[in-house]
Amino acid sequence: MNYHQYHPIDVVNGPGTRCTLFVSGCVHQCRGCYNQSTQRLDSGHLFTQDLQDHIISDLNDTRIKRRGLSLSGGDPLHPANVSEVLTLVKRVKEECPGKDIWLWSGYTLEELTDEQRELVDLVDTLIDGKFIQDEADPSLEWRGSANQIIHRFTDL
Ligand code: SF4
């Protein structure tokens, strides 16, 4: 898997202070995409074991407390990304107790394959659906257009 950016301290993508990973690769081609440079799977940099370890350690950093991890892109549910994102999510669940995971995807919850669903079953919040420019609304929290739905699966 490739990624575009990793922000170890982020207060924009999700609630509280967070770690945020923007992965590479997205098939949805939304008109007005806010992150067009991330659409190609081979763009960005290789997501290494070192970076995975770094994210886990940032989430457990007691000096700067993070509420959780945000996964965006690109699309973390791109079929080519699911396996590595699943590995990361499983580690966060096992090694970072109490941290929440938010995930943004261009797929809707109803469209998910069994493999994508396995991953989504481990996240706390999913913001789903393509960005639709005609429904864009800058006043919306955590999403760009009104068709996108915030699914909160847990109280975290
Ligand atoms: S789902 Fe997101 S990253 Fe993918 S094309 Fe649409 S706006 Fe861009």
Automatic annotation (TrEMBL):
InterPro entries reported for this sequence: Aldolase_TIM, NrdG, Organic_radical-activating, Radical_activat_CS, rSAM, rSAM_sf
Entry EC no(s)? 1.97.1.-
Keywords for this entry?
4Fe-4S, Iron, Iron-sulfur, Metal-binding, Oxidoreductase, S-adenosyl-L-methionine
Origin, by domain of life? Answer: Bacteria
The record's section on Gene3D superfamilies has:
Aldolase class I
| Cofactors | [4Fe-4S] cluster
Substrates-to-products reaction catalysed: glycyl-[protein] + reduced [flavodoxin] + S-adenosyl-L-methionine = glycin-2-yl radical-[protein] + semiquinone [flavodoxin] + 5'-deoxyadenosine + L-methionine + H(+)
Q: So which residues are the signal peptide here?
A: none
Molecular function via GO: oxidoreductase activity
The record's comment on protein family reads:
Belongs to the organic radical-activating enzymes family.
| Protein task | Activation of anaerobic ribonucleoside-triphosphate reductase under anaerobic conditions by generation of an organic free radical, using S-adenosylmethionine and reduced flavodoxin as cosubstrates to produce 5'-deoxy-adenosine.
User: Any idea what this protein is called?
Assistant: Anaerobic ribonucleoside-triphosphate reductase-activating protein
